[in-house]
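Why does residue order matter? Because the sequence determines the fold. Keep that principle in mind as you read this record.
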Amino acid sequence: MRVMFVYWAFEDQGSGLLINGYTRAAEELGHEVVVYGQPVPNIPLKYSMDVESADALVYIFEWTTDLLRGDNLDFARLSKIPRRRTVILDGDGNYNDLVSVDGDYNHRDEASRDKWIAICDSLSDKICQPTLQPLRRNVRTFLFYSYNPHWEVPLAHGGKEFGMLYVGHSKFRWRAMERVLRAAEPIRDQVGRIGVVGHGWDALPPWAAPMKMEDAYYTDTEYMRKLHVEALPPIPFQQVIQWMSKAKFNPILSRPTFVRMRIVTPRFFETPAADTFPLFNLDDAYANEIYGKAALELVLPETNPHEKIADMLDRPEHYAGIVHRIRGRLAAEHSQQQRLTVPRTSTTSQWPHVNLDTRLRSTVVPKRTHRSTTRWT
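Structure:
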């Protein structure tokens, strides 16, 4: 099976590492995953312009429905794939009514919401979101953001450059980050160096003002200076797990709207693979439904949260065991390999309604007799 992703790729944020994971997993299973477009030297993905040979066309819509450097010729090429073989992955939950939580929002107004939904509906009847609890009846669960055991770095407890690192931009994440920093403040000296890697932590990214998104990238830089938090530049997506592994623990943060919609992000699955302890700034139910009960020991509690951080630093062997159990669950239930091979007979409610092999094959493409001799019509 040949799957083509249509995606606005970035060098230093987004889903590049995840897409490369799908490409490798597909090759291991005898499939192929490619990204539509011409090669981009600084964004190393497996590109292709051969649209017609794709068995399924998968649009990954996160912050935009536009295509990087796209034009009418691109639309003409992509429209060759019929809608029955087209899927929308609505990564940020924008295919919803207006959702607004603590200053975060999926759309500024009804006009932008209506435009987003109309574009998705014009392309496919199969709208998927990375949540186990979609808000709209016509949205299917598909946790596209997922785990890859090949990412795993052996856990080591010493020689760390940082006590805490967060790798990711600041968009609507200051409230969650502030909660983690407030928890670390009473034991600041014990934690060691704290760093945040990515756009928007010490200054607005260059696109914030033109897009009128200054509020989205708000951070309290004075408080960060008080705690000696180091704001570090963005890194290529291939280095995400390497950088996470420089710290004793990495918080897993989520935007307020993502918490409301129970959306998962790439960091939910990249962080447990790194040589670090994930610290979940999520509620128990949110953590449990993805990682299992073992993860509850890594949830930042409401009461005396600094004691949790101190305990993680004091008992690394204990928490390493928890991370190993989490990795085992993610590999078994939420890996890219699993996404490509879930049997059609599975009735477990948390499995996605569509995946890239048997379920996508049965709902997107008709059966054929032999790949090398049969053309799609």
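The radius of gyration is 21 Å.
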